[in-house]
Give the backbone structure.
Amino acid sequence: MKYILDGYNVIHKVPRLAGLLSRSLQEAREGLVRLMAEWRRSRSVEVVIVFDRKRDSLDGVPVRPLQKVNGVTCVFSAPGIEADDEIIAMLRREKFPANVRVVTDDGQILNHCKALGVKIELPSRMFNQTPPKIGKTTLPGNSKQLSSARENDITRWYLEQMRGK
């Protein structure tokens, strides 16, 4: 199983990581990498964390687009490319999408995951902060709920768009 994390999305959704942002973005990134390195030690999984990169350096240090830290792969998107787009491109290249789990609550990524058959893990659920809602889907940042029929309509339309119909 491969876990792909939307790095900054997870950092902002997990209070113990979000708290590190008051010190620095670098500390928050390092906190997420440490957390995931510890988490993966007891599992036979691959962990990939994808971060946005606005420039060729972070805090004055040149950034390599791909780094491995304590068994965790860190991917920095190319400057000007959103991490969301990088994650979606990774998912489209996956040979076995059913063996991938994406950790995010970003709506665009969630839609692609659903269309591609990729499993989703919400950050709050993965890090056991709050139990997931059962029943109708609640859109992130929105209190409106979708009926199962409407959710299926959206998924069907999205799949057709992905296939170019």
